[in-house]
Each structure stands twice: as C-alpha cells, then as structure tokens.
Amino acid sequence: MSSLTLLSPAKLNLFLHITGRRADGYHNLQTLFQLLDYGDEMTFCTRHDGQISLTPELPGVDFEHNLIIKAVRKLEPYKKPDDGVDIQLLKRLPMGGGIGGGSSNAATTLVALNHLWGCGLSKNQLQSLGLQLGADVPVFINAQTAWAEGVGEALEPIKTQPKWFLVAQPDCHVSTAEIFSHKDLTRDSPAIKVAAFLERGGKNDCEALVRRLYPAVDKALILLQKFDRNARMTGTGACVFASFESAEQAQQVQANLPKDLPSFIAQGVNQSPLYKLLPSD
Known about the structure:
Blueprint: E1 3-21, E2 27-47, E3 52-55, H1 67-75, E4 84-90, H2 101-116, H3 123-133, H4 137-142, E5 146-149, E6 154-157, E7 164-168, H5 176-181, H6 194-200, H7 207-213, H8 215-224, E8 232-233, E9 240-244, H9 247-254, E10 263-269
Parallel strand pairs: 3-4
Antiparallel strand pairs: 1-2, 2-4, 2-5, 2-10, 5-6, 7-9, 7-10, 8-9
Helix pairs in contact: 1-2, 2-3, 7-8
Keywords: ATP-binding, Isoprene biosynthesis, Kinase, Nucleotide-binding, Transferase
Catalytic activity: 4-CDP-2-C-methyl-D-erythritol + ATP = 4-CDP-2-C-methyl-D-erythritol 2-phosphate + ADP + H(+)
EC number: 2.7.1.148
C-alpha cells in the first residue's frame, strides 16, 4: 500500500475582470490566481481491490456528485482494474467561499492518483480533464500562481511579491451560477495587460452585485476596508480579503474582527506542493 498526504490549497483572485460573454454561456475573464499556503488536507491510500472510498462524505453532497469522486472517475480509463483508493479529507475551506475548495480538491485528486496509480498522463492531459470538472481546476493542477484568461484555463505563471492575507468568511453561501447568470453583472470590462495590473491594480466585477445581494459580504468588506482600503472579494465570494506586509500586521487586524466572523491568515506562495508531483510534458 502507498500513501500520500497533500495540502489542497486555497486561492484568491487578486482581481477579476469579465471581458465578455461567450456563445456557450461561459464568460471570458482576466484574473490573477494567487495560491496560498493554507487549505484542506487530503490523504490518499492505495488499495488493490478496485474500491473507492471517501471519508468523511460531505453533508448534503451525493457521493458521485462530489468533485473529488468525479476526478477519480476521470482517471478510471487510465488505471489498472484493481487500483483503488481510500481518500481522507480534512476540510478547512468553506463551500461557496470563492477560494476554490472543491476545485482544489479535484485537482489534488487528479495529480495524486496520476502519480500513485501510474496513469502516465501529462500535465496538459490532466489540465484538460480538470477543465471538464470546472474552470478553476486547471490553475490548481498547474500548481503555480498565475495570470489567467479565457474561462480561466489560459494560464501564465507569474511571481508575486510575498504578502500575508487575512481572509474573512461571511456567513453565507454565494452561488457562482446565480452571479454569472444575473442580468446586472458587469460583462464589458476592457482587457488589460499584466504590467497595467501591477502598476494600477484591478477590481472584482462580481463584487458590487454580490454586496447588493448578500449583506453579510458587504458588512465584512466595510470592516476590512477600515484597515486596507484595497480589501476586496475573491471570485464570486463570499470570502473577502485584505493584504499585509507581515503576519503580525494581519494578526493585529484579525484580533479586531468580531467573533462571529470566522477568518484565517495565510501567506501567498508562487508554487503549491503539487508542483513537485507534476509530470513533465
């Protein structure tokens, strides 16, 4: 039996511009995916009877509808019949938070089992399978902080300056499908270059709409913007974040947040632990 324990990291969208709506209903966007050194923990133990188990199963999520199991199924055509796995998930990242929990879990599963089962898939093949599961899965497979375009699958690794992030989790679950299908969503932001973002920054085109629909997100952002005027929402929310030069600064602000607003502090990283397991193309 072989086993592997991996961090399944969170991500932040340092900005999110929606530049248009495609004929297939998806949106073209630009974003900078910042990986964090914080996330869920996943342990994979191989077995030789072809069985698949996941512990614990997420409340309210059918086994076969869990993105982790969907990722396993994507690899089944490439494994030996007797290859199985027991997966243990230590869940830290909230669902519906915009920090990529489910997508990160799926990516970690694809990379870990490709390695443990010896499926022999390249990074590009893994990313193609991941994109079938969700637009955010490829960036986690790529395992690098990256500038992204298209639906989020066209990735260019980018090195960001070391920052510490305070991420707050308002008590609500934002539906990505609801936000991206809403008639009031901004969909015509002009495309920008990396240099322009690094010089002037960007915004999150989903933020104004989510703040209007989810008062808890609005309240959390008002709090964080007292300490960092550039605090913003990640993805389609609900999580919001502020950035700092040191962990101590982040801790000082965290101490001033209300007790009913959960939060965590993490450092931005340019590579996640999955990087060392990626096959060379």
